[in-house]
Amino acid sequence: MTGTDDDLTRALTGADPARADLPPAKGSIRYNAILEAAMNDEATRDDRSSPSAERLQDGRWWTRRTAFARVAAAAVILGGGIAGVALLTGGPDGGPGIAPANAAEAVKKAAADTAAAQSGVIQTVLSGPFSINDGAQAAFGAEPEYVDGPIVSQTFAWNGDDLSVTAGAGVGPYELRYVDGRFYERGYFVPDRKQWFHYTAFDDGSGYDPGPEAAAEPFVPAEWLADYRSALVGSGLMDLVTSASGLTAAANGDGTTYSGTIEAAELSTTGLGLSGFAFAGQPLDKLRALDPASPVAVDVSVGADGLVRQAKLAYELEGADYTYEATYSRLGSAPAVTAPDPAHTTTTADRPWAFE
Amino acid sequence: MDPDTSGASTPESRYVAFVEAHFDAIWRFARRRCASSQDADDATAETFAVAWRRRDEVPAAEARLWLFGVARRVLANHRRSSTRQERLRARLAETAGHDLPAAGPDAAHVAIWEALGALSAEDRDLLIMRAWDELPVTEMAVILGCSPNAVSLRLHKARRRLAHELRQKGNPGPGHVTDGSLSTEGGAP
Prior knowledge:
Order of helices and strands of chain B: HHHHHHH
Helix content of chain A: 25-40%
Oligomer: heterodimer
Number of strands of chain A: 12
Radius of gyration of chain B: 19 Å
Structural class of chain A: alpha+beta
Strand order of the largest sheet of chain A: 7-8-9-10-11-1-2-3-4-5-6-12
Order of helices and strands of chain A: HHHHHEHEEEEEHHEEHEEEE
Helix content of chain B: 55-70%
Distance between the termini of chain A: 52 Å
């Protein structure tokens, strides 16, 4: 090592974060949580982290966050999830060879029929550019580098009045189930992957100050989920279909894709269930603010059975392309949503307020 | 995977011993590249999860370097999540009127952090590997998949750029910069 190396090492060593921030001790709660998370990591995805796999460069894979739940993530779940639902519910309908004049009515019928399904699964993905700057660059405002990929993804499944939400990319490990009027969740306030909580009561939010123009409202699972379901399987899609203009129909495999446009201002994030906290709705909110007349492309694919297969929105914001896709599957044939294993479920009334 | 140093015979017990042997090194490696200890916990768990899934492929002689390689890729992924989290935090702060705390470097070392922050990710990675992880050039070459000579050359250039950044910010850093290299004079930043 040269003298220059020595100088450099001395200069940098003092700034080493790992000098002041020590690793968790063996046997500590954190250590054990990390060990358990590593050993219980479900091998349900391709292992693309190993040195032998060089698939990272496409920027489209995501690690599962181990467990350390954050309120921010929860906000994304509770708001962004709805956002995804809302957007995916928008779309046109029709059949192969259908005349453009009838496309609007056809897609409305598909939306209505889809809404009538008693069960189903919807996967939502918001894709667009996101920064890959590391902490040091971001902390000091370096020019950001962007790649395209999924920003937020979530899966919703419903059967009758029961519902499950599973977070994917961009949100971290989180899951909720609403079964027989009981509300369960895990990975929100407690990082343990196995541990479910069945909450019997909810903070009313009275201790939260949302600002002068808003009021903290109590979190009522039944009401919230009713709105959630409505946007998920019906009203949001119908609103979008109704607002889209210039709908055309084109044969697509065994079904039809209906395409049209809608002005950004017409995409009411409130109506679609996109709350102000909805991370997934942020690009759309910004688009609406910057250019309300900006066109948003709407594509709704309808299968031969007359049910919506996918609703897709595409728009440009500040020179970047964003898409929001909601893919429907197992309509009318999705399995029952089941309560978590009682052996891993704790019943408690002590649930913090959602956005506190 | 490393030989069973604990005398245990099951894959699980061998794995626990393996984690114990490398835990601190991997956690520190992650912490140096994360904004918080919680993120380092996440990255460490993810790294060892990969090791668990690929336990039959871990090279016994170079397990530590193999883990560093895994951790680098895991961290690259975590950076995206961190950025999304930061954007969300900003959004929440704006919406809810909350003043959320922001992660940042120790104020006593702002100059060196600013200089590091101005470098490319590649330069920064090289310097951190050398100065914080204390890896010799030969091991850096294994992790980076290039020759030791290439690492030495890139490291030399990274040092020059770091010195330049420190000088630009009015801080001569560890040594006064003269012709683009670091001299042995001067004090700590």
